[in-house]
Protein: DUF3810 domain-containing protein
Organism: Candidatus Enterocloster faecavium
Amino acid sequence: MNRLSTNRPSKFTVKGRPFSLTALLTLLFAAASLLLQLAARRIPGFGQWYAVTIYPMITGSLGRFMGIFPFSITELGLYLLIILFIVSLVRSWPRPLKILGRLLLGASLLLFLFTLNCGINYYRQPFSALSGLTVQPSSSQELYDLCSWLAAQIQDCVQELSSEENGFPGQTSREPLPSFPKLLEYGRQGQMAMEQIGEEFPALAGFYPSPKPLLLSRILSVQQLCGIYSPFTVEANYNREMPLYNIPHTICHELSHLRGFMREDEANFIGYIACIRSDDLYFRYSGYLMGWVYAGNALAQADPEGFASLRASLPQAALTDLSYNNAYWDSFQGTVAEVSTKVNDTYLKLQDQQDGVQSYGRAVDLMLAYYRQQAVTASFGGSPTE
Ligand SMILES: [Zn+2]
């Protein structure tokens, strides 16, 4: 078959010269993306307006539709795209310009979807500004108090989990992976946890589509990623083979991106509060343990002795989980150069700490602000000062 002879007539002409539909669409997507990006950067209030009016409609329509499927459309689409690319390469290899044209069209479409479903949201007001929480520098004593409270909550959770599950030893290996029904249940609990925290923080209120476990989660593991928000399909994807206690927090973290909050440290905080306020015991355990990792890392720098004494007070199951978590992520060290800031122990860059009041990074500062607020309203389920 001589494919070179199947030249299709072009429908468009510019100054009498043929202009393909591919080129026209590429230009349209690229121009629309550029204009929207410029509007978000230059027009004050545009990003915030978009995030609370247009973006929720996208989450409520495209996100809701994608949520029907129990698997990740992004993941499936990625594999299909790779196959399509190879087929296109084989069929059109004598015409490199055609391949290039298709690639550019694909790239401009992805840029457009990224802009609509993610890029503009970077210019909205951050959660910290909308939460009503007072974020301020804190003393190392306050940080110690928070960690001490977290350790006590972890202790309580482990005790409850032990009685519910006939012993809760903590995780020591990847196998067995959580079953599909179990993952579906985690997804439902995550949606409920986010909807519930939306009652406390109106900025988080609204519909949340179901999160998706990736079939080939190893793709995320080698990048040291717990989860990934796909702006192309408005899907919250997560790693199903990582240490289990990461899953509830990651689900809520990724779902917070579907409310338009893009900052990683804020998503970590939102994931934390959604989990610790959840009705599900394992979600609460996940939230407290992740909170411990963030705040504990900061305390280890600010007050190493205080950190060591609190760490020794953690129940064995939690220590086992933490140690397996480190070993798991360590096994992927160096595989890929880019390391995600989402990974537990390495997430918060250690700061040049000094005595007295200081900032511990936005996630911990928000945790401290929430802890202070709850201590005032005393509705935190147990005394925050114990
Ligand atoms: Zn994220």
Remarks:
- The pocket of zinc ion is lined by residues 229, 253, 257, 264, 267 (CB under 6 Å).
- The chain has two domains: 3-123, 128-377.
- Residues 3-123 form one domain.
- Residues 1-10, 337-357, 381-386 have pLDDT under 50 and may be disordered.
